[in-house]
Design a protein that fits this description.
Blueprint: H1 21-32, H2 45-48, H3 82-95, H4 100-110, H5 122-126, H6 131-147
Helix pairs in contact: 3-4
Length: about 150
Amino acid sequence: MALGTLADAFPQGCSLPVGISKLFRIWNAWNTLPFASGCCGAVSWKKVARTKRDGGVKSPGSPSRPLPCPKDFGSNGPQIQAKDILEIVYKALVEKGYNPVNQIVGYIMSGDPTYITSHKNARSLIMKVERDEILEVLFENYIDTQLK
């Protein structure tokens, strides 16, 4: 059974995860294209996808499978906070000899994770936090220390 929109994949009462609205737009746009549904004599993309064995691209799997409720993602224990992640990233950048201020500002402005070193898993940690959350932590700290 195909889904009408990606939002239909979430159980009733679950809010949609923050930060993937672009994915929803792409998903909805893809499902509304004539060739994606198999009309107009075109072959569905599911039937055209090849496996690695055939020398083509690996099949993307079943997009109609329901996604887990976002509320279940954080149930594995305490979540690390943005300020703790910033501290870890800052220390990793200093250890590698980078200017942490320039590197973090570059990441926040561009969204390019290569501004952050992979040393001590800093790059994957900082990508777990939205950039606007990082800005909130930085501004809260600045306001608390400089303006009050």
